[in-house]
Amino acid sequence: ALDAALRGDGRGVMNGGTIEDAGGGEIAAELLIAVRMMQTEAASADGRVDYGRLRASEAYQAYRACTRRLVSFDPAALTSIPERLAFWINLYNALILDAVITFGIHGSVREDLGLFRRAAYLVGGRRYSADAIEHGILRGNRRHFHPAIPFPQFSPGDPRLRYSLAGVDPRVHSALVCASRSCPPFAALDSQQIEEQLDAASRSFVNGGAVTLGEDGSSLRLSRIFRW
Q: Nearest 5°: phi and psi at 91?
């Protein structure tokens, strides 16, 4: 019923086709390289993406090849928190870019809440939508922001729960790109520099308009993300 209401699809994936060998934990490094290539190819200095240029690029095709290797990749190969943060944030951001191109989105993705349920890859043989990555993995299986979804992303006994981060790092919200103007700029995160990159993303988010001083000088206006 929820998928019908949000025009979502709880079964489809975007990385079907020939399954390629994942090569152990090396897929995380391959994903980082692919995301960097897309950033270099189609992201402007402020991180905004030229989707037309990206669609026609070799960088995008290389990334699509990388997604096919995810099908047989076991996320348990990511043993440290920095590795898991970098991998899942990079995958979420690239997934949203891929979904904009695949589904032919021309307006704001926020106008189509079902997109975050339709946009999904098989990872290790299990389906991970954008919502599953954001709320189930990166936000420690917290409930969705939408008031119509009162329950956690993963139900008890869901095998994907083993990859859910135990605590929520609030800086994650400054690094997730949802293809909207209000989102952070598209960037690639390296597990070796994740602390510095998340700090920088948070500062950029706050100084970029997420926090503004009211006209009376005695109040602050905050992005709704701070509620989350």
A: -65, -45
